DNA sequence: TATTGTTATACTCTATAACTATA
DNA sequence: TATAGTTATAGAGTATAACAATA
């Protein structure tokens, strides 16, 4: 394995919260992406499973939330179904709609991913003192609470 | 446009910094992704251009940093070159290596993206009081400083 | 021999368009 | 008519494998 110069930062050098947010997003996504790859899961699949952890949405809701077209989601869910992680059932209130939810096996997979995700991010999160970790989490959650307006 | 129930959060409900980090990463990436799409740019292309904003790496460095295989990067750079945003030149010190850098047009595009990115994220960042914005940026940068170990 | 980079090929993911069924 | 979802079909993006050139 040959060593060459390495790149040590990713965003514009002048700073700004937006830059820090985008850079940390790329770094975090890289970790999640790598974790997903270990299980042969695409980033969308990881996210799909994560969303279903505590919800039972219909297809259109899922597509909107994931930012995917409904046809694209059909394929993603079909693949997940084939793997045995999710199942579909007709919505009792609307004959046109289909609800999606995790199977027991899917639930197990999500739990495993969740645990491994925390572990994989530990080198980052662990760099902060406990009170800074709490402060960061609080600030991020406040930020996220505003995203309905975005 | 029909309204249906919407999903209001993306990660496990029990919290934890890792969850908040992943959720905010997905949300941030969605904003960046949408911005990129407006310019017909993939997420990888946005990131490539962003990295080149203040660097002139060789292909292998870029591939490592982006987490892409060198062949994949060849294609990405070729597409960017075709669009006139980047150029390649032989590395003066190593006859095997190729350096990549932004063209003037690429630089203009990156500046535009940067400005639009800040604007697109404003609904999120603006939800925090100025001192909280500073605190969040400081915490994120401290987190990122640790990622060499990850 | 090892490393840098490109080309050839195949697979995954996503979107556009056309269709069926229910409201 | 409008909405929910699926099924083609096509294009972008990525990886695996094989190759050419330089160290």
Notes on the protein architecture:
Two copies of one chain form a homodimer. The first copy, chain A, is mainly alpha-helical and 150 residues long. Chain A has one domain (18-145): Arc Repressor Mutant, subunit A. Chain A is 61% helix and 7% strand. Chain A has helices spanning 17-38, 43-52, 59-66, 70-83, 104-125, 130-145, and strands at residues 86-90, 98-102. In chain A, strands 1-2 form a two-stranded antiparallel ribbon. In chain A, strand 1 and strand 2 form a beta hairpin. In chain A, 34% of the residues are buried. Chain A binds a DNA duplex (23 and 23 nucleotides) through helix 4. Chains A, B: Keywords: DNA-binding. Chains A, B: It comes from Caldimonas thermodepolymerans. Chains A, B: InterPro entries: HTH_MarR-typ, MarR/SlyA-like, WH-like_DNA-bd_sf, WH_DNA-bd_sf. Chains A, B: Residues 1-145 form the HTH marR-type domain.
The overall pLDDT of chain A, averaged over residues, is 89
Question: Would you identify the CATH architecture of chain A?
Answer: Orthogonal Bundle
- As for the number of domains of chain A, it is 1
Main sheet attributes: strand count, strand direction, barrel closure of chain A? 2 strands, antiparallel
Number of β-strand runs of chain A = 2
Query: Which pair of protein chains has the largest interface, and what are the residue counts?
Result: A-B, 72 and 72 residues
Q: What is the general shape of chain A?
A: globular
Number of helices of chain A: 6
Helix and strand element order of chain A: HHHHEEHH
- Fourth-level CATH superfamily of chain A: Winged helix-like DNA-binding domain superfamily/Winged helix DNA-binding domain
Query: What's the gyration radius of chain A in Å?
Result: 18 Å
Cα-to-Cα separation, first versus last residue of chain A: 45 Å
| CATH-defined fold name of chain A | Arc Repressor Mutant, subunit A
Beta-sheet strand percentage of chain A? 5-15%
Q: Which structural class fits the helix and strand makeup of chain A?
A: mainly alpha
Uncertain segments of chain A are 1-5, 8-14
Described by its quaternary structure, the protein is: homodimer
CATH class of chain A: Mainly Alpha
């Amino acid at each position: 394995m040959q060593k060459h110069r390495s790149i040590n930062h990713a965003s514009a050098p002048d700073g700004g919260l937006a830059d820090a947010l985008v850079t940390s997003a790329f770094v975090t996504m890289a970790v999640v992406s790598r974790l997903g790859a270990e299980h042969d899961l695409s980033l969308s699949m990881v996210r799909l499973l994560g969303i279903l952890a505590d919800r039972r949405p219909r297809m259109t809701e899922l597509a909107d939330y994931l930012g995917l077209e409904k046809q694209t989601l059909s394929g993603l869910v079909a693949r997940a179904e084939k793997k045995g992680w999710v199942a579909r059932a007709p919505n009792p209130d609307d004959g046109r709609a289909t609800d999606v939810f995790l199977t027991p096996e899917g639930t197990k997979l999500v739990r495993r991913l969740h645990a491994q995700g925390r572990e994989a991010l530990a080198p980052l999160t662990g760099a902060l003192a406990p009170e800074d970790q709490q402060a960061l989490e609080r600030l991020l959650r406040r930020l996220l609470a505003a995203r309905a307006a975005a």
